[in-house]
Amino acid sequence: MAKYFMELSLVDYACIAFLPSEIAAASLYIAMKADGGLEWTPTMEYYSMYSESKLQPCARRIAFLITKTLDGKAKQMVREQQSRLTSSSSRGT
């Protein structure tokens, strides 16, 4: 999941403000939160060299990209559903 989050940042120009290591750490942070609300431990802070507060701006941007992607997929699903309903109702009349 974290790898997918990192890939989302590749197509967003605003992410150029973040170091690659910061994007990786923020992606892991978001994945951990999504997978059971795991905490960012002192060990993770030590090895990544990023505190939870330092990751917040980058994590917020990646979270925005995730919701933007999910919104697009939801809209596509609604369009497909409407298309199926329209085609099935026109066949039924």
Compose a concise summary of this entry.
This protein is mainly α and 93 residues long. 77% of the residues lie in helices and 0% in strands. Helix 1 crosses helix 2 and helix 1 packs across helix 4.
Structure overview:
There is one protein chain. With 93 residues, this protein is mostly helical. The protein has a single domain, classed as Cyclin A, domain 1 (Orthogonal Bundle). It is 77% helix and 0% strand. It has helices at residues 2-10, 20-34, 42-48, 52-92. The longest helix has 41 residues, at 52-92. The protein starts with a helix and ends with a helix.
Q: Quick check: average pLDDT? A: 88
Shape: elongated
For the biggest sheet, the summary is: none
- Spans of at least 5 consecutive residues whose pLDDT stays below 50 are none
Question: How many angstroms does the end-to-end distance come to?
Answer: 46 Å
According to CATH, what is the class? Answer: Mainly Alpha
Tell me what the CATH architecture is.
Answer: Orthogonal Bundle
Q: List the secondary-structure elements in sequence, H or E.
A: HHHH
Structural class: mainly alpha
What's the count of strands?
Answer: 0
Number of domains: 1
Helix percent band:
over 70%
Strand content: under 5%
CATH superfamily: Cyclin-like
Provide a count of the helices: 4
CATH topology: Cyclin A, domain 1
